[in-house]
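User: Quick sanity check before I run a bigger batch. Here is a single chain. Can you write out its predicted 3D structure?
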Amino acid sequence: MQEEQFPLVDEQGNVIGSASRSKCHDGSKLLHPVVHLHIFNSSGDLFLQKRSLTKDVQPGKWDTSSAGHIDCGETADMAVRREASEELGVSIPNPEFLEKYIIENEVERELSYIYRTVYDGEIRIDNVEVSDGRFWTLDEICRNLDSGIFTMNFVSDFRRFFNK
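Assistant: Done. Predicted structure follows.
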């Protein structure tokens, strides 16, 4: 089976090539695009997923409601809806785009397209990629931000957009 290929992009999001998943995650810092969807309920609580222990990056940590890589030939708007459907079994018709920015850690560099939505329906987590999920109050998240239980990507998004 051929390894998954990710688009490579410049800092504006223009596709400039492609590379394998392993190459993008090996410390090469090849810039590749991802989506992060933050799902709030009507009470203002934020749904977080707990990453499966089998994930190659930040396994077992609490993370953005739904997130994933943008596939070759796919737009961010398409990817954010696909990821929400795959990971949580939800259909999000009009997620609100907030911003895109670069997140970098020791193994990768991502151009992150950030979205939010309000959703009160049923969430069915995919036990392959996601081991758990629940709504958190913003105060509960703030109390735990520096505890190491969250992914650095989620902490970056939360501080940038929601902890004002």
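Helices lie at 21-24, 76-88, 138-144, 152-161.

User: Great, the batch can go ahead then.
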